[in-house]
Structure formats: structure tokens, C-alpha cells
């Protein structure tokens, strides 16, 4: 059913945890990890 609502879901930890990774990740490595997390969230919400 399409009720006309728009829902935004964020991963609130995504921008806050890149500097807490052990071993430390470069920004580029963390971006790759972020893409995996975002893709997984989008897949889970795909219906």
C-alpha cells in the first residue's frame, strides 16, 4: 500500500565510528566499509 509517506532511515553510527576502528582505517578504506553497510541497509529495506 502506498500511503504517500516518505521515511528516511539513517545509520547514526556511520559518521562517528571511522576513527574508532582497530586497526585504524584510512578514509578510503572506511568509505568502502560504509558502502557495504549502506548497501546492506538498502537491501534489507527493499521490501
Describe the protein:
The protein is mostly helical and 47 residues long. It has one domain. Helices cover 40% and strands 0% of the residues. It has 1 helix and no strands. The protein is elongated. The mean pLDDT is 85.
Short description:
This protein is an all-alpha fold and 47 residues long.
**Average of pLDDT:** 85
Termini separation (Å)?
12 Å
Strand residue content: under 5%
Question: Helical proportion?
Answer: 40-55%
What number of structural domains do the residues give?
1
Shape category:
elongated
Weakly predicted, low-confidence segments: none
Rg over CA atoms, rounded to whole Å, is 14 Å
Number of strands: 0
Give the H and E element order.
H
SSE arrangement:
Blueprint: H1 27-45
Q: Which key phrases capture this entry?
A:
47 residues, single chain, 40% helix, mainly alpha
Amino acid at each position: 500500500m502506498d500511503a504517500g509517506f516518505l521515511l528516511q532511515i539513517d545509520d547514526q553510527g556511520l559518521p562517528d565510528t571511522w576513527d574508532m576502528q582497530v586497526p585504524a582505517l584510512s578514509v578510503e578504506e572506511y568509505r568502502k566499509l560504509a558502502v557495504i553497510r549502506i548497501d546492506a541497509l538498502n537491501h534489507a529495506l527493499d521490501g
